Amino acid sequence: MKFEKNLELLRKRKGLSQEDLAHAIGVSRQTIYSWEAGVNYPNILMLKKIARILDVSTDDLLHGYDVNKLPKK
């Protein structure tokens, strides 16, 4: 699965809006949108923050994760 789709699915599975995730990691909602649209990508420090918030590893965030195995919010 592509990073941008994986990010969106994991964020939604966690019950977070783009605004919620943006606030949690210190970026704008537009930044989250651009990542999920595949326009831009986060740097490694942001990837670590995102993974921590979404309770997944950076590897799972980048390369895909079976979202059906995640506990629902």
How far from one another are the termini? 22 Å
Q: Could you estimate the helical fraction of the residues in percent? A: 55-70%
Radius of gyration based on Cα positions:
11 Å
Q: List the quaternary state of the chains.
A: single chain
The CATH topology: 434 Repressor (Amino-terminal Domain)
Q: How many distinct beta strands? A: 0
Residue share in β-strands:
under 5%
Low-confidence stretches: none
N to C succession of SSEs: HHHHH
Mass-distribution shape: globular
* CATH architectural grouping: Orthogonal Bundle
- Whole-number total of structural domains: 1
Biggest sheet architecture: none
Mean pLDDT rating: 90
> How many individual helices?
5
CATH superfamily: lambda repressor-like DNA-binding domains
CATH class: Mainly Alpha
The structure class reads mainly alpha
Could you walk me through the main structural features you see in this protein, from its secondary elements to its overall organization?
Helix content is 60%, strand content 0%. By secondary structure, it is mainly alpha-helical. The protein has a single domain, classed as 434 Repressor (Amino-terminal Domain) (Orthogonal Bundle). Helix 2 packs across helix 3. The longest helix is centred in the first third of the chain and has 11 residues. The model has no long low-confidence stretch (mean pLDDT 90).
